[in-house]
């Protein structure tokens, strides 16, 4: 992935130079994500800020985001164009043919729970259910890119791009349940969890890199993915697949939705046992005023999934 992702960007930039198209180029916008801060490795330093050090070292896995940013910066040197990099997180939205988002899998999960008449159990742990996260509406991110492409002050800058609120699943999950006509048990985390799973993340979490200067050396524990409902296992259960096929045929839904849904990705998003708080201060200082309520963004995405026949209508 490191080599391929870097080569894709470099080949594109080289082609612009070779063909002469580069002469008309003003700015390149590269979208990466919160893996910039190592959120896939364990607890990050919160809030995450663009000035945070890159998560590198001999014991760290390679991060193609860093390689791409180096390639982009080097290619722009001495040229008449510049760049902007964006770091969104946990993106909600819809893109035709691209199921790599948490909204589609979440909508399918709720749809089948309702079809089976079963409670909408939060797949992750109580720790993350009551913890904090930041999300990015794909529509808001598109608006940010348009703004950043034209704002002179954004030249050669990287920006976090999240909705502008900090949310928690303890507030979002009941709204998801209500939207899909499901119910949540009063004590869901006390129920048996036959499809549970656990994955230990990197032994040295990202926050450990700055722990000493924060007076927290030796206090940062490695992260864990804790799932009370392992969604990959759940999606293969016989009664679950049969329920989906009933709904799909009855409602005329996209036949590919189930197999292409990113169950492992949704499991990662919901299974973390640490907070992910992302600062928007830099973008605000540069003049960005965009904002969207996170539940409104989820609701809008579910509306779009209904229109595209990925989930049945609920309204």
TrEMBL record:
CDD domains: 5beta-POR_like_SDR_a. Pfam families: PRISE. InterPro entries: NAD(P)-bd_dom_sf, PRISE-like_Rossmann-fold. This is PRISE-like Rossmann-fold domain-containing protein. It comes from the Eukaryota. It comes from Trichoglossum hirsutum. Residues 16-183 form the PRISE-like Rossmann-fold domain. Signal peptide: none annotated.
């Amino acid at each position: 992935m490191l080599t391929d992702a870097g080569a894709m960007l470099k080949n594109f930039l080289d082609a612009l130079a070779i063909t002469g198209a580069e002469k008309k180029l003003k700015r390149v916008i590269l979208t990466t994500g919160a893996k910039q801060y190592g959120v896939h490795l364990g607890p990050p330093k919160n809030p995450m800020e663009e000035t945070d050090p890159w998560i590198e070292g001999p014991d760290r896995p390679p991060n193609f985001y860093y390689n791409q940013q180096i390639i982009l910066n080097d290619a722009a040197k001495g040229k008449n164009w510049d760049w902007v990099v964006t770091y969104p997180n946990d993106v909600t939205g819809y893109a035709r043919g691209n199921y790599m988002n948490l909204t589609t899998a979440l909508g399918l999960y709720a749809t089948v729970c309702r079809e089976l008449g079963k409670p909408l159990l939060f797949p992750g742990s109580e720790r993350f259910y009551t913890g904090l996260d930041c999300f990015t509406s794909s529509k808001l991110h598109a608006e940010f890119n348009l703004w950043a492409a034209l704002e002179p002050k954004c030249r050669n800058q990287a920006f976090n791009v999240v909705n502008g609120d900090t949310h928690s699943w303890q507030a979002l999950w009941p709204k998801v349940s209500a939207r899909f006509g499901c119910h949540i048990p009063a004590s869901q985390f006390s129920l048996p969890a036959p499809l549970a799973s656990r994955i230990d993340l990197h032994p040295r979490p990202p926050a450990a890199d700055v722990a000493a200067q924060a007076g927290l050396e030796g206090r940062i524990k490695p992260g864990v993915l804790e799932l009370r409902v392992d969604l990959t296992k759940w999606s293969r259960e016989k009664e679950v697949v049969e329920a989906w096929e009933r709904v799909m045929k009855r409602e005329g839904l996209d036949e590919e939705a189930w197999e292409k849904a990113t169950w492992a990705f949704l499991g990662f998003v919901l299974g973390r046992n640490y907070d992910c708080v992302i600062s928007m201060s830099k973008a605000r200082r540069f003049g960005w005023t965009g904002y969207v309520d996170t539940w409104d963004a989820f609701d809008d995405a579910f509306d779009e999934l209904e229109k595209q026949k990925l989930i049945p209508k609920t309204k």
